[in-house]
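Appendix B. One record, verbatim.
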Amino acid sequence: MNDVSMPRICIYCASSEYCHPEYLQAAYRMGEILAGNGIEIVYGGGALGLMGQVANGALAKGGKVIGIMPRFMQELEWAHRQLTELKVVESMRERKHLMLTGSDAVIALPGGCGTLEELFEAITLKRLAIYLNPIIMVNTRRFFDPCIALLERCVEERFMNPQHLQMWQVVQRPEDVLGAIHRSAQWTEHARAFAVLAPGT
């Protein structure tokens, strides 16, 4: 069982405002829950879509929200203006690194290719035992079902080990996230021993 304290959680999610309202409502609720439990949020810094709703929900509860945004996005005025702190960086690569560094867990809400790229990078780093903390997908409207099926197919086709299915947890509601984090399998540097498949596995 994972007994990690959670002063900071990294959230990946979409900036689109044109998605189904359930996605936006779940994102706002996620922000409320984290802030209500004294958890600091670090995310991409945007004001729109799920990004904006996560921040709004947390700020409404008096939470601490840190945004990390590339300079070109700030210049386009995409940044949320009420954040506790906005860190402006020079590249998307630096943004992703700072979001993940120092986080005690990752939460992925639904999103587009950018969200999925961030999620898969976190999973890859966990496979290599570079990132060791829980990764949770919030499966609103069963959004992540195809993604989960693809990852399971990776194991079936022997591109990943069965142990790698423990790298993430899937929940249906924001209310289930904190419990899933605490239930996550402990992950250590020993995971490198099975990062690459061995003959016969």
